[in-house]
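Hi F.,

I've been meaning to write this up properly since the lab meeting, where we talked about keeping a consistent format for the predictions we share between groups. The idea is simple: the sequence comes first, exactly as it goes in, then the structure tokens exactly as they come out, then a line or two of notes. No screenshots and no reformatting. I'm using this chain as the first example so we have something concrete to point to.
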Amino acid sequence: MPLTSLRSSSSRRDIIIVVSIICILTVIISFRTIYTRDGSWQRPVGELPTFGNGDAKTPSESEETTKPEALIPVVGITSSIAVTTSTSSSSTVVPSPTAAASGAISGSCDGFPDTKDILVVMKTGATEAYDKLPIHFMTTLSCVNDSILFSDMEMDMAGHKVIDTLDEVANDIKKDNGDFDLYRLLQEYQKLHEDPRPLKEGANGWNLDKYKFVHMLLKTYKYRSDASWYVFIEADTGVIWDNMRTFLNKYDPRRPYYFGSPTYLDIEFAHGGTGYVISQAAMEAAVGKHPELATKYDKDVHGICCGDRMIGRVLLDENIKLTKSWPMLNGEKPNTLPFSKRQWCQPIITMHHMTAQEVSQVWNFEQERKAQGITTPLLFMDIFTHFVKPSLLSSRADWTNLSDDLTYTPPSPEDSDRSYNGRPWAELGPVERAAPESADTCAKACDADANCFQWQHHDQECALHHSIRLGESKRGGGVTWMSGWKMDRIEAFQVEMGECKSGVDWNGWGR
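Output, unedited:
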């Protein structure tokens, strides 16, 4: 073979060897990158994986364990995940350390408050879980250290385990009880791997839901009895965690506290959808010392309206009364919140009836504030400025702004003695009597009322409001809804209230 051919072959071999080495190194690097993404971003070899806000765990600490008929707390693991293992008589719930929350991976947990001493308890229903829970995995629950999910059917949502709250309700309570018709149907759907969402229409989930509350208390305390604070929310509740942390720091969990937005029936109790918080001392007194709780209260559930009332009963029986925390714990959301002097400089901690889009929008707003270096509490003022004020107009068609402080409708023979702000119809001035006639006359009635910020007109009814609300679209029924806002008064109100530099009001009260 010619010398030039030998040299050429040798060069080709050298090139092949170099290329092979490069390929091998590329595979090794790629494998390490994949491993890193399965654990935590850019973790050097040999460094312990971290969970939540940075607690390093050794393999023995993070190893999943199961004990029969026990709920085993693992403190400090960031996850809204709980692994449910069925036993002959009960459920065993163990938090799963399989993955850090999505927020931690994306970096959105930077600056997130320390929640190691808080257990977040979220309740939902199987017919709505797939529509409402996923957004919370990316926002509300993504950075908290410990959380547990309850429903009326055991579910696994891409590794996020949802616990059947009702699996330990006694058979004599369920038997021949129409309140459990949906529950029985859900069990059949689960066996057949059918989508439970269509059951939402026509199913009386409200009657079933009220049985969850006491059992949720029991399972929560069994899962983790050492939390300082137990924050109970629902799948349409939004939470401002920085404000929640600041609020709870003002109280001693070794004392019995029950925080919430007050609702009044035969007793005073916290509204469930708004969210409520129970201290460690209160949980120990009401639940820890009474493992027979379900036996005592389940028989009474059928005859009451709602499960959150039963929570109030359980606590009141231990002489633990509600600490009113409205409007910070609030049953409204940005477009339905009322804004006035009363709550302008108060922090907002929870909101209710939030859609997935609204949960995401508020979460994103929080992240924007942090990115801008804003560390002050998120106030009603901030919600108004960001979410409400840009959408206000002098008038808007096909819209209700939820005005209802003072309503004018022409009297009928059935209500001839009706009072309008303490006066009969005959004593009203011409502007007020003309208010129901049209949107224009309704707007003039608002002009004549010095405290009026907005008005609403539809079908011979004019309503005025003395706080500011955005509201929502309103169409159909052959009636045109018109809403309007007094923009000059709103601007003057904002100037008068200023930036709340004189201080933030962390005191709650009743509605």
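Notes:
Confidence is low (pLDDT under 50) at residues 1-8, 27-92, 94-106.
Residues 3-38 form the longest helix (36 residues).

If this format works for you, I'll send the rest the same way.

G.
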